[in-house]
Design goal:
Layout: H1 3-10, H2 13-30, E1 46-53, E2 60-62, E3 68-69, H3 75-87, E4 96-98, E5 103-104, E6 111-112, H4 123-126, E7 131-133, H5 134-143, H6 147-157, H7 159-168, H8 183-187, E8 193-194, H9 196-207, H10 214-225, E9 243-250, E10 253-260, E11 266-273, H11 278-297
Helix pairs in contact: 2-11, 3-5, 3-6, 3-7, 5-6
Length: 299
């Protein structure tokens, strides 16, 4: 039997976690190789990691409570609030919502619009002047990260309702202030923020059927499994591994928050800040994901 496997079998769970944490920290410290840059000039990313095994055993945390710009990970609590209101009978998921490209800044209420060129989805823009169901808007918001769909849902649901649900679920650190592309708010530093721990708690609630309820949470998991952007956490997993996850990217920000359905299902959240090239942050995520998978699937 290989000596490394013998060593791991002999370690206590706490020692195994400590060993995994060291290996993950080594991946972060290695920094990505960027074309044309000498090793000593490579950018040093800021990375937060939270691993929560769903069997209740201890995981690992690296900068779990450090605040990051949330980017599109803030769409997870929007989805939870949508299903909560549907469960409470306040709306129907098949309810039609008029599609208007008109939103209001939280700074002064002034109107702003979204541009299809800055978004990741054209389907909702093609529906301007028509209507789409709340269910279809949620699908677009999560699977292709449509900003337009997110803003429409946020205005329908109410930001304060989303915030109250996050607090009720214990997702401290996830702070939804506004819709996407509110430039006046951005200029004043009024941004949606998240921590790795806060996102992990929300995903853990969904995975355990405790966010809204077993049926609604199962529907949310199914939507998250249809995610189209898979260069982060899924890239480090064996092909075909079911992953329910949400990504988030803006300039020098790249996140992935996932429920991974392996032999020992777990929640893994990785937040990365400071790298210009998404392929570099994706490589870090994939390497961390692979290390976690290997650690949790060993005999």
């Amino acid at each position: 039997m290989p000596w490394l496997l013998l060593l791991l079998i002999s370690l206590s769970p706490a020692q195994q976690n400590a060993d995994l944490q060291k290996r993950v920290q080594a991946i972060i410290a290695a920094r990505p190789a960027t074309s044309g840059q000498a090793p000593d000039t490579r950018p040093t990313p800021e990375v937060a990691v939270v691993l929560m095994p769903l069997d209740g055993r201890d995981g690992i945390t690296i900068q779990p409570d450090q605040a990051f710009h949330a980017a599109s990970t803030m769409k997870v609590p929007v989805m939870i609030e949508l299903f909560r209101q549907a469960e409470a009978g306040q709306l129907r998921l098949d309810e039609l919502l008029p599609i208007k490209n008109e939103f209001h800044s939280i700074v002064d209420g002034s109107v702003y619009q979204l541009s299809v060129g800055d978004d990741s989805d054209a389907e909702v823009y093609a529906a301007v002047g028509k209507a789409m169901t709340l269910r279809d808007l949620c699908e677009a918001m999560i699977t292709v990260s449509s900003n337009f769909a997110a803003n429409l849902l946020i205005e329908r649901l109410g930001v304060e309702n989303i915030r109250k649900t996050v607090t009720r679920l214990g997702g401290d650190g996830v702070n939804v202030l506004r819709g996407v592309e509110d430039q006046k708010a951005f200029d004043k530093g009024l941004n949606n923020t998240t921590t790795a721990r806060g996102l992990a708690v929300l995903l853990q609630r969904i995975a355990n059927g405790q966010a809204v309820g077993p049926k609604a949470d199962a529907e949310m998991i199914a939507i998250l499994k249809r995610q189209k952007f898979n260069d982060g956490i899924p890239a480090g997993l064996p092909a075909g591994t079911p992953v329910a996850h949400k990504t988030g990217t803006i300039t020098k920000i790249h996140h992935d928050a996932a429920i991974v359905y392996g032999p020992r299902p777990y929640v893994l959240v990785i937040l990365v800040r400071g790298l210009q090239e998404q392929k570099d942050s994706a490589a870090i995520m994939a390497a961390i994901s692979r290390e976690v998978w290997n650690a949790l699937t060993r005999p």
